[in-house]
């Protein structure tokens, strides 16, 4: 903080020498205290602020200076009458408000002494690019941006002795007392900030700040460079010409870094030299020979030749060895003219060099261009992925318009009910059905690599045993172990990543569909996990993944809502006398549809074969752990429509009821491993029949949720009827099945649960109860219609859209029911989900149930989008860092940071070394420690 005393004033005044008036003004506006402190030294600051180096020069004072400027202007503009703004020179007195260093040489100049940018700056900017050779392109940027140590001018450089010329010439040779390497470098005095600008990248589009000396030759140099490419194109062998560089050892355009090219070669070159330059060189040579001071030309061995030209004119040339950059590549599309020369450099596709301030083109424009190209791609892909239900037109089936006005004259006391039925176009019951997620775990992982490398250990033993003839075999065995273990490790890691991504792929389906379609209920139709053989610990681990990763935010159905039966409670009917049979008492669970909004976030889980096994291997422990984590294996609930709160002209006699049943069909068929568990399923089905509405009552519809599909003939769906059994010594139970047996499909499901009967004298003509069956298990999915004809014993199944099924549905005297096997939600099967809508049609007096679907696509799409997003984010971060480093950050900051890190490492090493030495001294003091003597253990002889 500046307080006005002598020390503070001297510091401020010394700092003012590096700031112009604008910078001082900006500094004063940052803080009121700064302004007050700076005002105390106002006169000194104004007098000592940064000044232009040409402030004391008057270039128009002599005729020679004016002629020299005119000659330079003529060279620059090709003889035109107007010199152009880029070389217009000083326009007035030196300014004080805008003073800065030249971005090429570091000379401090003001805005009046700078080379003015050309009128068409955008066009001129394209011509400043220089193509780099392969070596310079691949080299780190730090090798290009190191401070220069060589001075380049037209007549002074280093060169070893060249051979005498065969042409008649008078030869003068500079003295070379000692031999010095050809590549000896000469330190040149530079300004303090020159290295900073050399480390900086090109900012010509934003900042064109060059002194007049650096800015005079820009336009002719760019023109000559572009003509070089045009000349190559005109005389190229591709067009039938002789080719460029014919007869020379190398042909092509020189690297844009010229002599500073990292792959430069030393070649001999003759250059013209005027008398002034020659005289200066001779004076420097005499000084170094006599006094040992001056410019060090030792070892450069210049050769000066006076050559008689036409008309007796004597020209002086200097033959010297100079570094020449390597040849750059010429692309094929540039040869045939399909693409302009240097178009890649202009577009920022490859690294190039800026010839104006002689710095590297910034790398961030290429990254910015790449990231900008990725922006629309990533936005499009990510938008499609996360809004795929919208793009795929995924909606629950909508009821017909005749049902939209059912709840218009309803008065709901509960605002939850009012909100549920506010959307007249949406069905009151919307079930999101997902099939077979099959979360895998350690059973699907390959064996984890242990990295023991026994072959390498054996190789070490053989080397120590002195048997070199076995070394080759040991080396081969060791390398084989290394390769195998590394490969197993990569495969193990890949599978872990695959499981991780699969969880989030399934989670994405649930979240996207749940948010977009707004279901009222959600169910998973079995095979929640990938194996029934896993232990309790792995089962719990996969359950945690199910609830906290795949279906994050969802919850288990509260205990008691899906009731099976009250097992210990039974009653005896009054008319039963002496009969030992007891009926299990079962109370219905009834809930108003829409009264509890929590159902939308509850998962109704159905048990599958990969959860508890088939009938031949189900035990009590598997069912218990499943019910603990995912809910009951059997249960049902009744949802009623609140039509009693509506003013209807023709209300139904009974309140419409939608019955939702969860049934364990895994042990429905025999033989079973535990008959007790099978009887439990049978008793539940009997309780369903006892508590069902009368057949023919269309005000009640049943939705059966189970895992194994009903029986179908081969060819109806992808899966065919299949039963396999365990050996007799293992119980002989069912080991695997694709469908429920034909008899159980008819007796337990069609006759029992739905009351379908082919007897024409059965109640309601055998038409049974309305409803639908939703199953899983068959990963490919299937949609069929089960039907049968009166006075017949066979039931048939045909595709829902097939001719037979349509004819059966059209016949009002043919009982039947629809079964939808929901396709698996796994990525291999397209990430399918079923959308089931149910509503009550007052005009028909019955429930209507429609089924839709939605597919996400294979998991590769999910991976591709997220990998693309990840790459794009990385590129954006690298672009931001590169932009900050190249544009905003102090170029010397990295060097300071490297130096600071190096110092800290050295300090830490020194500190650790001192600690180790102290511990060694302590051991020697305590026990006479000698590292060269082995001590015997206590008690040894």
TrEMBL record:
Key words of the record: Membrane, Transmembrane, Transmembrane helix
CC annotations in GO: endoplasmic reticulum; membrane
Membrane-spanning intervals of the chain: 861-885
SUPFAM superfamilies: Metallo-dependent phosphatases
GO biological process terms held by the UniProt record: GPI anchor biosynthetic process
InterPro entries noted in UniProt: Metallo-depent_PP-like (IPR029052), PGAP5/Cdc1/Ted1 (IPR033308)
Protein name as catalogued: Calcineurin-like phosphoesterase domain-containing protein
Source taxon at top rank: Eukaryota
